[in-house]
Amino acid sequence: MVGVVQQRLAASLREQRQLPTASLCVQRMRVLPFCDDYLFMFATREAALLGRVQIERTCAWLGLALSPTKCVWEPTQVIDHLGLRVDTRRGLFLVPPDKEKRLREMARAIVASSLPQRRLVPARFLAAFVGLAQSVYLAVPTAKLYLRELHDVLSTRMSWSSKVRLTKQAIRDLRWWATLSEHGLGRAIWRSAASAVLHSDASGFAWGGVLDGTALAHGLWTKAERENHITTLELVAVLRNLTAFLPRLAGKRVHLHEDNMAVCYVLRELTTRSRVMMKYLRELWSLMQQSEIEFAKVDYIKSALNPADAPSRERSWDEWRICSALFDRLDLSHGPYTVDRFASQHTALCPRYNSKWADPAADGLVSAFSNDWRGETNWIHPPIEALDQVALNLRLHPCRATVIAPLWPAYSWFRELRECADEMEVLSAADSLADPAFLLKWGVRGPGGWSLVAFHFR
Length: 458
Known about the structure:
By secondary structure, the protein is an alpha+beta fold. The chain folds into four domains: 2-75, no CATH class; 97-188, 2-Layer Sandwich (Alpha-Beta Plaits); 196-312, Nucleotidyltransferase, domain 5 (2-Layer Sandwich); 324-457, Rossmann fold (3-Layer(aba) Sandwich), CATH 3.40.50. It is 39% helix and 19% strand. The chain has 17 helices and 18 strands. It has helices spanning 2-15, 20-27, 45-62, 97-114, 123-134, 148-154, 168-178, 230-244, 246-249, 261-269, 275-291, 309-312, 324-334, 387-396, 412-420, 430-433, 436-442, and strands at 30-34, 37-41, 78-81, 84-87, 92-94, 120-122, 163-165, 187-188, 196-202, 206-211, 215-220, 253-258, 294-300, 339-340, 377-380, 400-406, 423-429, 451-457. The strands form five sheets. A five-stranded mixed beta sheet has the order 11-10-9-12-13. It has a five-stranded mixed beta sheet with strand order 14-15-16-18-17. Strands 3-4-5-8 form a four-stranded antiparallel beta sheet, with no helix packed on it.
C-alpha cells in the first residue's frame, strides 16, 4: 500500500504540470508511513503548504477519505505521531506528557501492589506496563535497558492469569520508570558527528584499546574473569577502555569499533538475555551517564583490521611484581618510595605510578621517562629492554632510587648501574621473589629463574 501511494503521488505530479513549485516541493518531501498514519516532513513552511495541496489532490485521486478531525493540515514543528511527540524545533523525539504520567503511575502501582504480596504481581498487569514502556523506545534510549529484567520476570509465568514474582532488579528498574521525568528524556532526531574514535578488543588473556589512533590501553583478565565467554569479555573490554580513557572521553560522542557482532548489537539495543552481560551493561551505561559519554555510532570491524587486537594480546614477561615482604623491607631501609616508575594498574606497589598504558590512576604522563625523577624516591622495576635508558637517565639526572634488575654482569646497562649506584644488593632468584598472590590472581607464569639485584641510589 505504501508503494502504491508513493507511485500514485509521483504519477499525479507528472500529470499536473501547472504546479511546478509543488513538484519541487514533493521532491524534498520525507514521508514516515505506518498503516493508515502518514507523517509528511518538509524543509520550510512554504514547502509544506505546497505539499499539502498535492497530498490532498493525490488522496482524492486515490479515493481515500481523510478524517477532518484526525488530520493536521496546518504546518507545525511539534506534533504527536504514533504515540510519540516529534519536536523539530528542539530536534527531539519526546514522550507525550499524558503517556509519561501513565508510565510513572503504572510503575508505582506495580511496586506498591507487590510489596504486601511478597513481590507477586499479576502477569497481565506487568505485561501491559512493559508494552506501554516499549512503545516509547524511540524517545527513551535506555528503555530496553530498564525492561530486560521485566521481560525475564514475565517469562516465568505459568499462564497469563497467573502471578509472577518480581526480582530485586525488576523493582529497581520499575522505580526508575516511576521517576521517569527526572532522567532527562528525549532522543535527538539529528545526531552530531563523533568527536572521538575508539577501537576495542579482547582476547582470552587480556583486553586492549586504541583511542584516536594513538593512545593505547591494556589490561589483564583475572583468572576468574577468563572463565567468561569471549562475548562477555568483549563487552567488559569496552567498559575497561572507557574507564582507561575516561579523562579524554568525558563529555564526548564516541565512534566505537568492535570486532564482535553480538557486542555491537548489545550496545546498540542496550539489552541482552545474558544476565552476566546485563550486569556489565548496566555498569557501562552508568559510567557513560556520569561522564556524559555517548556512542555516536557502534560499528563492526574485522579482527584483522582492528588496531586494538595487538594490545589485547600483549603478554610480556614483565607483567609481574615482587612479593610484598621484600618490597616492605626495601621500603623500610631505602624508602619510603613515593612513586613506582614502571607499573600498571595490576603491578603498582606505590599509590602513585607511571604506566605505558592509558590509565586514569597513573601519575603524570604515561611514559616514565617523560617525568622528572628528581625530588622523589623512585621504585624502578623496568622491563629488560628499558634498562639501558634507565641507566642513562640516572647518570644524567641523579636521584634517590632503587632499581630491580637481573644479575647479568655482561650487559652494558649492568656495568653502568653498578658504577653509578651507591649500593648493590644481590637478591634471590626472581621466580622465588614473585608475588604468589599476584600470579594466582592473574594466572601468569611470572619471571624466569635468574637472580635479581637491587641497585640503590641515594
